[in-house]
Amino acid sequence: MKNLILIALLAVFIISCDQDDQDLINPETANLKGDWFNGSELDEGATLYRFTYTFRGDGTFEGVSTFRNSESNELLGYDYKVSGDYELTRDSIIFFTTKQFYIEAGTPAYLPALEDLDIRDISERQAVGYEITENKSLLTIDFPPCGPTENCIDKIIYSRLED
């Protein structure tokens, strides 16, 4: 009798794992593949801030924030970069962040080269909801809810960066 229960539990486990694998979308053929940005003007329009996600077909991603002169479009510098792997399902992106590049406290708002940022190896997993709309030109990322005293982001809308 114990063996029958054990076999039944094992069968349920195998079936549920198999269904999870079927929910994964191949990043090579996904609509998410490419560059997506969100930006704003700073300093009364003198500086443009842009955060760009790049989702590659090999299941890796990179996010970089840049600052540019709004008149000349000259690159002024960077303040953040993140990279790692991702998995995609019908309704979520699972980020597996492995590297984070950032500005140390007490330094300027941005640094001229990515190499000037401090690097930190991390192992972080975050699942977010997503939706691609407007003829595959807008990406909305929905962040999970957080506690009442936390400073959280609800959602961010990114535009596809055309080649």
UniProtKB/TrEMBL annotation:
Superkingdom per UniProt: Bacteria
PROSITE patterns linked: PROKAR_LIPOPROTEIN
Name of the featured protein: Lipocalin-like domain-containing protein
